[in-house]
Amino acid sequence: MTKRQHLEAINTPVFSTISEAAKELSLDSYVIGGFVRDYLLQRGTPKDIDIVAIGSGIELAKLVAKKLPGSSEVSIFKNFGTAMIKFQDIEIEFVGARKESYHRESRKPVVENGSLQDDQKRRDFTINALAISLNSKDFGQLLDPFDGIGDLKRQLIRTPLDPSITYSDDPLRMMRAIRFATQLNFIIHPESLQAIADNKVRIKIISNERIVDELHKILASPKPSIGFSLLHSTGLLPFILPELVGLEGIEEIEGQRHKDNFWHTLEVVDNIAEHTDNVWLRWAALLHDIGKAPTKKFDKKIGWTFHGHEFVGSKMIYKLFKRLRLPLNEKMKYVQKMVLMSSRPIVLSEDFVTDSAVRRLIFEAGEHVEDLMTLCEADITTKNPKKQKRYRNNFKIVRQKIEEVEERDHIRNFQPPISGEEIMKTFNLRPSKEIGMIKEAIKEAILEGEIPNEYNAAYSLMLQKGKEMGLHLN
Ligand code: CTP
Question: Is the pLDDT of residue 467 over 60?
Fold first, then answer.
């Protein structure tokens, strides 16, 4: 890495302004952390900038805000000794270098000032401790006392200090190590991995919101299984998603085995990550089999069964979302629905695919029918090439049929062609169960393909059903 490249990283008015302001205050300043890491990894333009000042970060932020046209007011977090300004869509965070550990969440005021190196060694990973000088004497120079550059090249997550110190300073870093390993496809240094395993219980002191932030990032990565298998091997998973732990293992009775549903799930998540960036669909893939642990049974005649696991799994989602502080809104309902319906297209694809079965699928999945298909296709993890080919082919047919049927019958956002109002008027009825029965009969006839999804056909059927029920026309 040449010095010129580092100049390129900071060749913007933001950095020259910070440099100027720091000079006026007679203090040194550096850009550090994710900005430098992502620049060196060429991961696109990083959004947030972390500045460390050898002196008061707050004073520096105040002067920068004055000097930088278009920047926001300074937000000061006195307890943490940090300050933040927004400039365009970038957040610039300022902190004074500290001797003591990096306590973002600590309520204790930061007291002891330190040198750049003091600050760097208290950061989480060597690749996050890289700093570039903003001082006129060596503007653009990279300061890398822990060989972060070497670790970037070796693709290694390593702590600047003894890992047990780094992780006990902030146990969230155990999740961060796994998250960075997943996002960047890096290896975690063996000593670090051991320290995570040793300190796993300490994850309990971290709030679920912060844990979920990391889980989201793991799930949003190109190959989420890297993260989940690390959560598993370090022993963190039982503290975070015990529902998944219950899926692990293969049992054998009378020579009959079932697949290991934990490792199967991870394959499904990787498969789906290739086809969608929708993180909620990825959540659905992660949770689609959680009902298999509580429903597992062995039957002498049919072998292993997981009857109703989709229903049981979907019922487990609320508690899981609540515990992890995931949103209990339409996102959760979407995941519940995907889990509940996760076997439907499979059943379809094993059989001869009828139009009415496809209509029912579209009716129930509604606008999410394509997502459901994506989930089911990701669920094919059989290693038997013949079976694999047959399933894929059948799903292709189901997809084609969905398109055909939808084009003809418009079931996706199904609105009953005859309203309850109209039924009431026609037969001079008050609100009563007969109205529901007629509506249901019309819906069923449409889904079965007995009548088209049209007003006139539905009207005739309404008259016929009314007659059969002994109702009189108004
Ligand atoms: N940091 C740390 N320990 C933490 C969190 C953050 O040492 N628990 C330090 C790291 O030096 C990190 C910097 O603070 O690079 C900024 O943290 P943050 O913005 O959370 O992460 P980034 O590294 O910028 O990465 P990302 O934006 O992907 O989260």
Answer: yes
